[in-house]
Description:
The complex is a heterodimer. Chain A is of the alpha/beta class. Chain A is built from 19 helices and 24 strands. The radius of gyration of chain A is 25 Å and the shape is globular. By secondary structure, chain B is mostly helical. Chain B is 74% helix and 3% strand. Chain B has 16 helices and four strands. The chains are: A alpha/beta, B mainly alpha.
Amino acid sequence: MNNEAAPLLEVRNIKKSFFGNQVLTDINFTLHEGEVMGFVGENGAGKSTLMKILFGMDVIRETGGYEGDVLIYGKKVSFQTPFDAIHAGIGMVHQEFSLIPGFTAAENIVLNREPVKKSAASEVFGDRLNTLDYAKIHGTAVSSIDKMGVAIDPDMVISQMPVGHKQFTEIARELSKENLKLLILDEPTAVLTEKEAEALLESIRGMSSRGIAVIFITHRLQEILDVCDKVVVMRDGFVVKETPSADTNISEITRWMVGRSVDNASTRKEEGSSRQSEKVIMTIRNLWVDMPGETVRDVNLDVMEGEILGIGGLAGQGKLGIPNGIMGLYEAGGKVTLNGEDIPLNNPRACLNAKLAFVSEDRRGVGLLLDESLEWNVAFPAMQVHNKFLKNYMGGLVKWRDEKAIEEVTEKYIDELAIKCTSSRQKARELSGGNQQKVCLAKAFALEPGFLFVSEPTRGIDVGAKALVLDALRRFNRESGVTVVMISSELEELRQTADRIAIVSGGRIAGILPASESSEAFGALMVSQVI
Amino acid sequence: MSANNKQSAAPQKKGGFSLKNLILDNTVPIMFIVICAICIPVSGFSPSYLINEIMTRLGRNSFLILSLLIPIMAGMGLNFGMTLGAMAGEIGLIFVSDWQIWGIPGMILAMIISIPISVALGVLCGKILNQAKGREMVTSYIMSYFINGIYQLVVLYLMGSVIPIIHSSIKLPRGYGIRNTVSLLQMRQKLDELLAVNIKGVRIPVATLIVIALMCLLIVWFRRTKLGQDMRAVGQDMQVAEDAGINVERTRIISIVISTVLAGFGMIIYLQNMGNLSTYSSHSQIGMFCIAALLVGGASVDHASIGNVFLGVILFHTMFIVAPKAGAVITGDSMIGEYFRVFVSYAVITIALVMYETKKRKKKSQAAEQLQADQQAAGADGKGA
């Protein structure tokens, strides 16, 4: 074994800057065979950039490369493409699936590495006319699935698989590569159910015992403690801590991540409750929503004027389907009224006209115009829907954008929400996840809605930004008296922010409890009707 | 009748559902079966005449339509790039008829001549289509007009002046350019007559059918090759294929090249059956008719099988044969039927494309319908209890 002499992977003094913006500074760590390293850090701390460097992604080269050295078994390497990295034994499972939907799991596992048989035609026309060896394909797939230790059917077509199995197929693909030495898993458990996540952790242990080193990136700190040998904490482009995970605990890691102690106990009681009235502002009756993976069945719910109502529940139980269905983004049926008036379903424009606003959980897809400036992002919906920020000429026949008003309102929200950007004209794509989320909120606030849906406002953003976002929501609710329905998978966050919390389970409302109720009570509701 | 259907469907929902889906999935073929079923008796053609005609057209057209399958597999949709191959085949035939090489050797030589031209045009077409991903159908359609212009330049002005053409029978009287019609009389049905057998008055062109069968086997085999697998992957998700290291652009170009080369061969088989070459118009409608036939056979933009090809040829051409006569019998004017069959092939393409989109949307909303039905059922149960 040569790991005595040199570690499998050594990273020395890595520096990387994007457009003069230093995102990684003096990164150093080593990784030995079979070691599992947990990688944590707030969003924007530089985790993904570092992984992109390790995997030789094109974006690094296109933005001027990096400084410092990556060594594998003591030998300096410089990957020009991901294929170089794969060749050197590095595998990476990305957050987005990279699978062919109409192929079986087995076909995906061996994609572009299919075992073939020589044929007469290939002698003449080249190797691509070799015929596939289906028996061997099956064999390879089965053995790599076995290595993983999770039972998935190699003959099942990807498009018919539950999302967790797709994730496992991706991992099996990496494992089927004979020379795999290091596997990078980028938030693999984000889409998994608890049981599946458990199985994944188990298979990570299996890989490690077979000598494969794993870099495991996750926001779920408990998983790090469960499975990792050591944990590396990053903050603002620096490695702030590298420690054996046995010697630490969640609150310590959290403290290192944010560089300050996070006061978990900041529930909203101390600030007094919001202007709650007895008046029902929105009634939802027999709502069904066909949102893939978040199906809603027969939901009945009353929302009080001026309150913050939290909607919680496990992933895939339908909590996201409720706002998406009411706002007309997915096909829905049932009856929804706002202030006694019917809201037509499957008609997003009608919802917006009724002064409903929605901050989507899919901020890159639905929430933002990524290639437009912040000003446009903030002002566009208000301009479209309510004719705001327009100057009228010739009795309203000609409408010009009021650039000055747009700039003012954007600056106002940049200040209020502490959006980190170079100017109000910066493109939304260039912001980090947390700041993009704040822009989404600013956009909804600029609509001056009477009723606001906020879906997963803190998903994928760091602890610091989280507090700011939740604070902004509370302030918006208190100061403008706007009713807010907030959907989140994090119960603690709901308990800090909301007045009442409805728990969705199996597509139905399992119960509504005041935020002060104990976590156990909420937990019991969450699993009550799970399908 | 509909009331009956409803009653029978209610108790066993699932059975009714799948029958409905079967009909929905095959609307276009079913429409054609109905049209043919009405027109055949009206036209008054004898069965042996009909079968003979269908057999002839099966031999004439199948190969051309088979050339469409591989680009569909590679996700490039219904491809008018085949028209380019057809032009290459025609150029091959012009040369062999100038050199007076007839019969099977003439056909083989024409095919050999067509290959480099098809490959060059295929590469050009493939490169352009790589710039227009997702809009291959319309791009290749316009492209076929563009290449038609170049074809006319070559055939009308360059042949006889720059490119040596010896035989005056195919040259225009002015000394250069090819006549409107090139007679292939001495090549006519040479392949079809080879090994032909006669069964109860129906002539079966065995050699042609063998060539077509070999072609089908080749396609089946091709699907199982590495290249075929790569094409399927590219057809389903270019990004994923690219990430896995498959050269997407090259794979797409190869699929178009294979299609144009096969279309060149197909055109030569088609024209040896016809027995003459309309120099400036033979290829003009061929793409349209082939695509229409394939769609009639139940294919769609992203899926086509060998079965679709044969069902399509049989249905589409049965309609072609019987519609003019049926039109003449019904209206007393044979032009109506003539008009009908051209208009129908455009209509088929339109309907099939619209159906493809609706089906995609339908698939999405089907789950919603189920959900609504379940909820209503549950609600009714709740009230009952």
